[in-house]
Amino acid sequence: MTFYNNQMEYRVTLNTELNLFIVFDKRDENHFATGKTIEEAVQELSKQV
User: Fold this and answer.
1) Beta carbons of 13 and 21 less than 8 angstroms apart
2) Cross-strand bridge partners of residue 46
3) Strand, helix or coil at 46?
4) What would the pLDDT profile of 2-16 be if each residue is shown by its tens digit?
């Protein structure tokens, strides 16, 4: 799924083996962050942007 917020577009996946959400920057698939929740992963990604 692709989501939007005021700052960026991102795609969310769930790694069921590690129980982590992975958020990918829509413009650069090599730019990603992980977190226990979607919100945590998005916050980590926005820190990198």
Assistant:
1) yes
2) none
3) helix
4) 666 667 888 999 999
Please state, in angstroms and rounded to a whole number, the distance separating the CA atoms of residues 48 and 44. 7
* CB 41 within 8 Å of CB 21: yes
User: In DSSP terms, which residues pair with 34 in a beta bridge?
Assistant: 22
Q: Please say if the pLDDT value at position 30 is more than 90.
A: yes
Question: E strands, the chain, where?
Answer: 2-4, 9-15, 20-25, 32-35
**Residue 19 confidence (pLDDT):** 97
Looking at the predicted structure, is the pLDDT value of residue 23 above 80? Answer: yes
Q: Which amino acid is at 34?
A: T
Whole-angstrom distance, CA of residue 46 vs CA of residue 40: 10
Q: Which amino acid appears at position 20 of this protein?
A: L
